[in-house]
């Protein structure tokens, strides 16, 4: 499957293109042909940057007609007029595919916006609307908008109207939209918004539908992936029980930045071992499974803003690519832009006219190409070898391949020796290894030296 060693890249679609915050067209005069502005086409100018960076899949946050931010859908069948037309987006997808870059769309199926056409019909017709059963409505109560009825919103947010996914007509409408996306845009997968809120029965039906549609339209069934957004809890709820291929790894995300900020690599080491370590040791909850790993995204503070020491940017990304998972970069973070949550969504989702190439981007590009080339990195087992507050050494192994990653976040170089009590049960490194960062070959006989504020990636020869 294409995502086995995929390197993802996320665009917050409305933000990066500088689209207006509000969708201005008026339902009372709309005739089905809102005037589109082809802002999404600007991203064609990013394709060479993506290729140079080593990206193999682009994930677009919602691109369909919405009230404001994309997750409040108005129309699943039409590209948001602030971004352009269906044809404009189809052209961009074709360009990406022409550069061997897959396209993944945000599937927002738990809820819609108040501007969604069926909900507006309920607002207009009340109990006489044919779409009352598309939502969870209580006619004996009133909403905070004085609609004359109460409706369930997503997690209490009344701008996001929860859909009744037990209604066959709702499923028909949503699945019809997915079929159109596969046929018109030739998409390669969906990232499912708030997948943790979606019933397993719905996810399984969606998975079956996507496979069937792919078969009908000449795409291999296993070439289409479903990845779910999940923040807390057991990720196996989606991976094993709902037919999904992947999900977001928020546990690793938190460990990445806080381990550096607190000078406590035990945190990220514990998470990695718990998730991917040897099953024989009672760990490895997700061993052999593909989780999407990231250092930031459109919902959280930019890595360059949350790190206490920005010099650690290089090391965080090295750890991200050395760890099990499908690495996903958030637009602009590869050259170190900042964005603080306290400054609002706009600070996390800025308009950017063109990409920037600097030393950080070059470093991430090197990491991405190593990740794609080394089987031990993209599908190897994980084993902790040594962990201290400022140092972490682990091994990634696949049949016939072994890579050892050594990280030192202290400001002093250190030599770690095998089996010394203060270093736990570190077994040492023995044999001939190539440093994948510079190509040098070195013979090890137990101890390993790691320079201050640095990492090394060693491949056994």
Any overview of this molecule?
Strand 9 and strand 10 form a beta hairpin. The protein contains 14 helices and 23 strands. The protein has an eight-stranded parallel beta barrel with strand order 1-2-5-11-12-13-14-15. The chain has a six-stranded antiparallel β-sheet with strand order 16-17-18-23-20-21. Strands 6-10-9 form a three-stranded antiparallel β-sheet, with no helix packed on it. The chain has three domains: 319 residues, Alpha-Beta Barrel (TIM Barrel); 54 residues, Oligo-1,6-glucosidase, domain 2; 81 residues, Immunoglobulin-like (Sandwich). With 461 residues, it is of the alpha/beta class. The protein is elongated and about 80 Å long.
Structural descriptors:
alpha/beta; 461 residues; 24% strand; Immunoglobulin-like; TIM Barrel; 3 domains; 8-stranded parallel β-barrel; Oligo-1,6-glucosidase, domain 2
The CATH first-level class of the largest domain comes to Alpha Beta
Outline: elongated
Task: Report the radius of gyration as a whole number of Å.
Answer: 24 Å
Mean pLDDT: 94
Which parts are unreliable, with pLDDT below 50 for 5 consecutive residues or more?
A: none
- Strand proportion, as a percent range, falls in 15-25%
Supply the helix-strand structural class.
alpha/beta
CATH topology of the largest domain: TIM Barrel
Number of helices: 14
Overall tally of domains: 3
**Major sheet strand order:** 1-2-5-11-12-13-14-15
Q: What is the name of the CATH architecture of the largest domain?
A: Alpha-Beta Barrel
The N- to C-terminal Cα distance equals: 28 Å
Q: Helix amount, in percent? A: 25-40%
Q: In oligomeric terms, what are we looking at?
A: single chain
State the total count of DSSP E strands.
23
Q: What's the name of the CATH homologous superfamily of the largest domain?
A: Glycosidases
Q: Could you describe the largest sheet, including whether it forms a barrel? A: 8 strands, parallel, barrel
């Amino acid at each position: 499957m294409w995502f086995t060693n995929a390197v993802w890249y996320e665009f917050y679609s409305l933000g990066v293109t500088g689209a207006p915050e509000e969708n201005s067209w008026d339902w009372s005069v709309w005739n089905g042909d809102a005037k589109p502005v082809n802002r999404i086409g600007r991203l064609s100018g990013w394709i060479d940057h993506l290729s140079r960076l080593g990206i193999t899949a682009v994930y677009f946050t919602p691109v369909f007609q919405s009230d404001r931010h994309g997750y409040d859908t108005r129309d699943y069948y039409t590209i948001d007029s602030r971004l352009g037309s269906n044809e404009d987006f189809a052209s961009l997808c074709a360009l990406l595919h022409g550069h061997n870059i897959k396209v993944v769309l945000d599937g927002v199926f738990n809820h819609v916006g108040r501007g969604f056409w069926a909900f507006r019909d309920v607002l207009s017709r009340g109990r006489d609307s044919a779409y009352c059963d598309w939502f969870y409505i209580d006619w004996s109560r009133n909403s905070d908008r004085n609609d004359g009825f109460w409706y369930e919103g997503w997690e209490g947010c009344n701008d996001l109207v929860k859909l009744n996914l037990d209604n066959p007509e709702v499923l028909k409408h949503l699945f019809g939209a997915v079929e159109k996306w596969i046929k018109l845009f030739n998409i390669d997968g969906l990232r499912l918004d708030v997948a943790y809120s979606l019933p397993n029965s719905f996810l399984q039906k969606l998975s079956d539908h996507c496979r069937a549609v792919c078969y009908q339209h000449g795409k291999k069934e296993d070439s289409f992936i479903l990845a779910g957004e999940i923040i807390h809890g057991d990720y196996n709820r989606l991976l094993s029980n709902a037919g999904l291929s992947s999900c977001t790894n928020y546990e690793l995300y938190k460990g990445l930045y806080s381990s550096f900020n607190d000078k406590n690599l035990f945190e990220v080491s514990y998470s990695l071992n718990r998730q991917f370590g040897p099953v024989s040791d009672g760990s490895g909850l997700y061993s052999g499974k593909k989780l999407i790993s990231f250092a930031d995204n459109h919902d959280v503070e930019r890595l360059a803003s949350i790190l206490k020491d920005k010099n650690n940017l290089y090391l965080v990304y090295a750890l991200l690519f050395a760890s099990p998972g499908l690495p996903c970069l958030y637009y602009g973070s590869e050259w170190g832009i900042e964005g603080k949550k306290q400054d609002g969504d706009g600070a996390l989702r800025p308009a950017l006219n063109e990409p920037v190439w600097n030393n950080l981007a070059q470093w991430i590009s090197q990491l991405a190409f190593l990740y794609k080339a080394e089987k031990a990195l993209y599908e190897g087992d994980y084993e902790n070898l040594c962990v201290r507050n400022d140092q972490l050494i682990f091994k990634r192994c696949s049949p016939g391949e072994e890579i050892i990653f050594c990280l030192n976040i202290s400001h002093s170089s250190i030599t770690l020796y095998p089996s010394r009590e203060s270093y736990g049960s570190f077994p040492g490194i023995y044999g001939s290894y190539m440093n994948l960062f510079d190509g040098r070959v070195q013979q090890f006989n137990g101890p390993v030296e790691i320079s201050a504020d640095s990492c090394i990636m060693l491949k056994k020869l």
